[in-house]
Design brief:
Length: 223
């Protein structure tokens, strides 16, 4: 597979090297904030890094935006024929499933018809057994009746053969008809709603089962 060589602008390479060279220092014990002057100077450091980060993002977007536009144009074009294929597959599958269901219905009705005939035959044998005087013969008739009941109905309708290369998947879905009756173990907290309440009230509203805490972070304004 042919690959395209990526060319990174020199400005991006230089900026990357500059930022990389500062990582170890700021993550080490050599960088400390123990005085008011250090605290003030660190604000300038933070703003400088923010400006570098913004520039890196601009350089990245300058390279990726044309690619994104090209990708979108390609995706938009192929989306149409892919949807055509999806529509055709859906139409064919719908008719196939409809045929399968109809054949299953016919087979079930035929099996039920045969089952009723078997039951009627079994009852006749039991009635004969009740009338005969020989207990041995009566028992034989009752066994024959039981055997008929236990025999699976055989129909002349052949099962649908599987199509090679076609996989049939049955998905079981659901819909909630009464949320108030759903057991508690199937419910999950609405974290988005809880988050909105916590942020809006700054944690002043107590929600049972919820612990509110805060995290403080700094970021430069970019000014």
């Amino acid at each position: 597979m042919e690959t395209t060589e990526l060319t990174i602008p020199k400005e991006a390479q230089d900026l990357t090297n500059e930022v990389k060279g500062n990582v170890d220092f700021y993550k080490s014990d050599a960088f400390t904030i123990q005085t008011a002057e250090q605290y003030s100077n660190s604000a300038e450091d933070l703003k400088r890094v923010h400006a570098q980060e913004k520039k890196i993002s601009e350089l990245r977007l300058g390279m990726t935006r044309p690619l994104d536009a090209t990708k979108k144009a390609i995706m938009d074009f192929f989306k149409v024929p892919e949807q055509y294929c999806a529509d055709i597959k859906s139409a064919i599958s719908t008719k196939r499933v409809g045929y399968q269901r109809e054949q299953d219905r016919i087979r079930r009705e035929e099996e039920e018809r045969i089952r009723k005939l078997q039951e009627a035959e079994a009852k006749k044998l039991e009635q004969r057994a009740a009338k005969v005087k020989s207990e041995e013969k009566a028992e034989k008739l009752r066994q024959e009746a039981q055997q008929i009941r236990e025999t699976a109905p055989v129909t002349t309708i052949a099962p649908i053969e599987k199509s090679e290369g076609i996989r049939t998947v049955t998905n079981y879905k659901f819909e909630i008809t009464d949320a108030s009756k759903v057991p508690a173990e199937y419910l999950i907290p609405d974290e988005q709603k809880i988050g909105r309440v916590v942020r809006a009230t700054r944690g002043e509203i107590i929600i049972p089962g919820v612990k509110v805490y805060s995290e403080t972070k700094e970021s430069s304004t970019g000014r």
